[in-house]
Amino acid sequence: NYGDNTVLQYDDVCKLDFGVQVGGRIVDCAFTVAFNPKYDAIIQASKSGTNAGIKAAGIDARMGEIGGDIQEAIESYEIELNGKTLPIKPVRNLNGHSIGPYQIHGGKSVPIVKGPESEKMEEGEFYAIETFASCGKGYIVEDLECSHYMKVFDAPHTPLRVKSSKALLHCIEQNFGTLAFCRRWLDDLGQTRHLMALKNLVDNDLVQPYPPLCDVKGSYVTQMEHTILL
């Protein structure tokens, strides 16, 4: 968001998550960078987890078994921080996902821990294989200021009484459709006083917010993500 003057420091860990689309066909990818080599192990853990997920993926592959392979890869790492050796674990309430045309989250989930899921991957499907490695609890909650949003893909027509909300929804549909956007882009389009209208769209289940996801304070989480086509 505009006004955020955060500057990365030597001991920061930064995740870069980005998407590219051509005609609604989406590639969703992410990687993690750090400047201090003490974080190499936790970065490598998410890389190994994603590589294990890609290796296990395929036509008729079962989701729960893919999650088991990812979990085993991530948990084979540990990290030393402040004189303590900490286990690295997958974030159990985050998943990879299928991708549809103009729909970043296509309906199927790819777990990153072993589970009973028997749903299978099918030929012709796109998947974002993404894994998250944590030295905290391995469980995240939504927190902090939200900057990213997306129009709900299958949102029904909802009459809006607030004029500014109607105008903002029209702006979102014309410029982003059902693809993700950030508040800064709304500012750039002249929607500089959009907060209340945006909240109204969220309250009416027309727009989904995507706030930061946080493990326990003081812990670190890394991510690696690739998109594949079966």
From TrEMBL:
It is an enzyme of class 3 (hydrolase). The keyword Protease applies. One of its GO terms (cellular component) is cytoplasm. It catalyses: Release of N-terminal amino acids, preferentially methionine, from peptides and arylamides. One of its GO terms (molecular function) is metal ion binding. Cotranslationally removes the N-terminal methionine from nascent proteins. The N-terminal methionine is often cleaved when the second residue in the primary sequence is small and uncharged (Met-Ala-, Cys, Gly, Pro, Ser, Thr, or Val). This is Methionine aminopeptidase.
